[in-house]
Write a structure and sequence with these properties.
Helices cover 30% and strands 30% of the residues. With 384 residues, the protein is α/β, with parallel strands linked by helices. Helix 5 packs across helix 6 and helix 8 runs parallel beside helix 10.
């Protein structure tokens, strides 16, 4: 639990259809994690003793998959309206009347501990607390596209969640709410019942995902760290008629010997990506002793590394491969190699470099005994 904060519980409302966002946004991936997981993780990290996630009936399996591995949460079934969903969450939560309860929209994933602290502390001397941001833009009244006046903005705030109340206060307020009326949010319910609700400093990053374009904005707001990985691979020459390098087959009087297709360029690049993630090496994921990889196309290894990166919410920034050999001549095939790597990695062509060099007839590559490759990959991972 966050130091100096009382024990609190939370309800995460995740029962909406998300039609304006193009589908159930709470289950969509954001930074490698389902949207709903961001909020549940933040609440648990801040010390929530009990988290009820309200989902549509039948969506319990989706919630279990999205929140796998997290302790201290359970589901409740959503209702026909948001207010019904919150009521169901409150009923599932239970507890003493003075228990602080935070009610949060799953569609606001960028929840931080500072906001959680502020709304809980806001309950001191108040019946409710909500985070908000002052309206910065000038406001106008308009009809059919014609401005008819201005709106004073000095007392206007943009309300956010989580909103905090004591359990007994919000339960009693909902019990008194007129049937058939639609409440803007829980703060409006408590205000209607005569409660005093205060507004505390919100967070501009605590945006609500409403439209498809909001996801791109949210992705840009996620803190990321830049990492660099390097890889090296070498294979000896043997009898053959062609060699695979960086995903391109080159006619040659020899072939590289290896358990797979021995594409040293792709092997080095795969190791560079895995290394940047701290995710072992190619041998850990594709053991050479496993017969299923005998003769396998090495692009499968590279795609596997990229998929693991994406699963962690990361992205590849650029790659640089150097092939070290006396023969074959690489330059005539460099552009094809770059294009193949750009396609495999979903990178723009100018983010892919392929170079070749010799060792001036020195060492095993200089003597024509084998070929070596080294690679560098730059990635971005979510995290501070």
């Amino acid at each position: 639990m966050t130091p100096d904060l009382p024990a609190f519980a939370a309800i995460v409302v995740a029962a909406g259809s998300g039609s304006r966002a193009g589908g159930a946004k709470q289950w969509r991936m954001l930074g490698g994690r389902p949207v709903v997981r961001w909020s549940v993780e933040a609440l648990l990290a801040a010390g929530a003793a009990d988290v009820v996630v309200v989902v549509s009936p039948g969506a319990e399996a989706q919630a279990a998959a999205a929140l796998a591995g997290l302790p201290g949460w359970r589901t409740a079934s959503g209702g026909a309206t948001r207010a019904d969903s919150v009521r169901n969450g409150l009923e599932a939560l239970g507890g003493p009347d003075d228990r602080p309860v935070l009610i949060h929209d799953a569609a606001r994933p960028m929840l931080g501990t500072a906001v959680i602290r502020r709304v809980i502390e806001g309950l001191n001397g108040a019946d409710g607390a909500l985070p908000g941001l002052p309206v910065a833009d000038s406001l106008r009244l308009a009809s059919d596209g014609v401005v008819s006046g201005a709106v004073e903005r000095d007392s206007l705030w943009r309300a956010q969640t989580p909103q905090a109340f004591r359990l007994g206060t919000i339960v009693d307020a909902y019990a008194a709410w007129p049937a058939g009326e639609v409440a803007a949010d829980e703060a409006a319910v408590v205000e209607r019942a005569g409660g005093r609700v205060v507004i505390v400093e919100g967070d501009p990053r605590l945006m609500k995902l409403t439209f498809p374009e909001d996801f791109a904005m949210a992705e840009a707001l996620i803190p990321r760290q830049t990492r660099v990985g390097q890889g090296f691979d070498a294979h000896r020459w043997g009898p053959g008629t062609s060699v695979w390098l960086c995903g391109v087959e080159i006619p040659h009087d020899q072939m590289l010997i290896g358990h797979s297709d021995a594409d040293a360029g792709l092997h080095a690049l795969t190791d560079a990506i895995l290394g940047a993630m701290g995710d072992g090496d190619i041998g850990d994921h594709f053991p050479p002793t496993d017969p299923q990889w005998k003769g396998a196309s090495s692009d499968r290894f590279l795609i596997h590394a990229v998929e693991r990166l994406a699963a962690r919410g990361g992205r590849l920034v650029n790659v640089d491969v150097t092939l070290i050999c006396e023969r074959p001549r690489v330059k005539p095939y460099r552009q094809a190699m770059r294009e193949r790597l750009a396609d495999l990695l979903s990178l723009p062509l100018d983010a892919v470099s392929v170079k070749a060099t010799t060792t001036e007839a020195m060492g095993f590559t200089g003597r024509g005994e084998g070929l070596a490759a080294q690679a560098v990959a730059t990635i971005e991972l979510t995290g501070s």
